[in-house]
């Protein structure tokens, strides 16, 4: 391999030690794989952004409002429509919002049931 071929740093961890494997670029430090070319220029944060029920992009620390009564599994409690949830934290998975609701406690919510306040 010659030094003429320079691969871009990893978009996930910024490691300069990327290499080519077939049609993909691979990072040996975090095992992130991506395609070379224009698609690699899109920041990972934009391609995997979490959006609320109306399409607004959510971020850590945002305040959201619940748009539907949500039954809390295993209890008779309900999170009512219009409940404001402050200082959310975005996580991966099916329930992609981690938060603490006053009077109820820590919960995980789905972004499809909230609207950015």
Write up this protein.
By secondary structure, the chain is mainly beta. It folds into 2 domains: 7-39, Single Sheet (N-terminal domain of TfIIb); 63-116, SH3 Domains (SH3 type barrels, Roll). The protein is built from 1 helix and 11 strands. The strands form 4 sheets. Strands 1-2-3 form a 3-stranded antiparallel β-sheet, with no helix packed on it. It has a 3-stranded antiparallel β-sheet with strand order 7-4-11, with no helix packed on it. A 3-stranded antiparallel β-sheet has the order 8-9-10, with no helix packed on it. The mean pLDDT is 85.
The assigned CATH architecture of the largest domain is: Roll
Task: Indicate the CATH topology of the largest domain.
Answer: SH3 type barrels
- How many domains? The number is 2
Shape designation: elongated
CATH class wording of the largest domain: Mainly Beta
Average of the residue pLDDT scores: 85
Number of helices: 1
Low-pLDDT sequence parts: none
Domain Protein YjdM C-terminal: 50-117
Family: Belongs to the YjdM family.
Pfam families: YjdM, Zn_Ribbon_YjdM
Domain Protein YjdM N-terminal: 7-35
């Amino acid at each position: 391999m010659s030094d003429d071929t320079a691969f871009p740093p990893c978009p996930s961890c910024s490691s300069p030690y990327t290499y080519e494997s077939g049609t993909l670029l691979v990072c040996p430090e975090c095992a992130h794989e991506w395609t070379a070319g224009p698609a690699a220029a899109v920041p990972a944060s934009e391609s995997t952004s979490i959006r609320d029920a109306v399409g607004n992009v959510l971020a850590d620390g945002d305040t959201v409002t619940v748009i539907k009564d949500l039954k809390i599994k295993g209890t008779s409690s309900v999170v009512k429509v219009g409940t404001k949830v402050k200082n959310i934290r975005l996580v991966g998975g099916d329930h992609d919002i981690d938060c603490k609701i006053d009077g109820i406690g820590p919960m995980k919510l789905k972004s499809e049931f909230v609207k950015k306040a």
